[in-house]
Amino acid sequence: MSEEKGENSKESKDLEQNKKEEQLSLVALSVIIGLCGGFLWSLIGYIAYLFSFTEVSPRAVLEPIAVGDWQNTWLGLVISFVILSVLSAGTALLYYVAFKRFKGMWPGMVYGLLLFGIIFFILNPLFPSIEPIREIDGYTWVTSACLYILYGVFIGYSISYEAHELRVKEKQEVSQ
């Protein structure tokens, strides 16, 4: 009887080892990458704001939708991180649709600069605390542009890497 238990246990371990892990779809991975990237780069942007590298705070995202002094409290900061993370998931999906087939960091850099241009040139009137681009000091301009470039590289490289890994796994499964 104990031998049967040992064999059953060994067979179940073999079956567990032979099971393939269910992979998240590339769309789901893109959303997760966007959420993490939004939080990470919002945090880094806030640190840059605290050290006066930039005059633009992550709280600026609350200006078009919220009224009151609570925006300048810790709650406003947390809510701005959440909003930026959700918006980042949307921009990651946009990158997934438009650029997922490109490899390397250059498409991510271009995407980051494109986002910088959209925020600072086109959507600038929505954010009263962000001065027009001609009036922003050099430190804010350079820091913000670099943060957007790094954000774009993070999103782009992560999604391109996951897309490449998924293609490699699919080729391996087909060849087996």
Automatic annotation (TrEMBL):
Pfam families recorded: YqhR
InterPro entries: YqhR
Keyword NAD among UniProt keywords: no
Domain of life: Bacteria
TM segment ranges: 26-53, 73-97, 109-127, 139-159
Keywords: Membrane, Transmembrane, Transmembrane helix
Protein's name in the database: Membrane protein YqhR
Natural source organism: Bacillus oleivorans
